[in-house]
Amino acid sequence: MKTYLVTGGAGFIGSNFVLYMLKKYQDIRIVNVDVLTYAGNLENLKDIEGDERHIFSQTDIRDKDAITRLFAEYDPDYVVNFAAESHVDRSIANPEVFADTNVMGTVTLLNAARAAWQQEDGSWTPGKKYLQVSTDEVYGTLSLDKLDEFFREDTPLSPHSPYSASKAAADMFVSAYGDTYGMPINITRCSNNYGPYQFPEKLIPLMINNALAHKELPVYGDGLNVRDWLYVEDHCKAIDMVLAKGKLGEVYNVGGHNERANMFIVKTIIAEASKAVNDPAITEDLIRHVTDRAGHDRRYGIAPDKIKADLGWYPETKFEDGIVRTIEWYLQHKEWMEHVTSGAYRAYYDTMYSAKEVLD
């Protein structure tokens, strides 16, 4: 039985990955490590309550002793590091937290994996792999005037926010451990994810929630910033394939071929949400333009040619289908959203964040 140590497995992408893997494979176990900051939500994992293949540990990835104990107890075959502070606005307000968690947390995991997997002669235990889940934001920005240009794996890193800088630094540490020690590693860099269980500080769930409540829909600047949107299940499939077949040491870009301007996203949500609940009050009159974010990248666009050619992965979900599926999920899980927006999803609350702070 293969063991996966998944960090950040109570967050948006991490919990979707845990659910996907346990549904697909019967003969695995997952050690789910999450410190449960504001974005960690154990309600995301209700569907696997009682599943003995899922072991949850409320642990900070920066806690060297605790991480070392988990390696010793469970001897993981794979480490998949989703754990990260990920909201750009928060990184602008408090960059130190991002540097600490995203960089030093990654180094702690790398050191624990090296201590557990590397033999005295410098060789590595066969079958082990460390996978760093990163972001296209490490590449910086693309021009709206050159739509034939895309981020590729050899695009120089040029992060523009404290968040993306912390992720780029973490990527460089992972790559350096591969080069210096021969650690079996991969890095994946994905475009913007959307789908079930996404914390409603992010664009799509925030707009869905506000639209259904007839609240203002805040749009940064002119709303023409372009992002490449990837349905979260397609991302989970890509990570699974990289773990199984990815060439050691390689970076793989994971993109959706779904580039859309933010304003297009918001207007699509208005139209689809209004239709889904038959509510004529959900209109574009709810849109409010707000002061643009500092250092706001203009366009992201990923070329996933390498992962397609090497591993056969491709994004299966068209945005037009995925956004409808996402809206339907939130409509069917109103209690989940209510628990998040009220803070009730946290039976105990001992971190520096609060749901009210995010959503007010």
UniProtKB/TrEMBL annotation:
EC number(s) reported in the record: 4.2.1.46
Superkingdom of origin organism: Bacteria
Keyword NAD (UniProt): yes
One example GO MF annotation: dTDP-glucose 4,6-dehydratase activity
Protein name from the UniProt record: dTDP-glucose 4,6-dehydratase
GO biological process per UniProt: nucleotide-sugar metabolic process
Domain annotation NAD(P)-binding: ranges: 5-324
Record bears the keyword Repeat: no
Reactions catalysed according to its record: dTDP-alpha-D-glucose = dTDP-4-dehydro-6-deoxy-alpha-D-glucose + H2O
Record's keyword terms, sorted: Lyase, NAD
Family assignment from sequence similarity: Belongs to the NAD(P)-dependent epimerase/dehydratase family. dTDP-glucose dehydratase subfamily.
Gene3D superfamilies: NAD(P)-binding Rossmann-like Domain, UDP-galactose 4-epimerase, domain 1
Cofactor (UniProt): NAD(+)
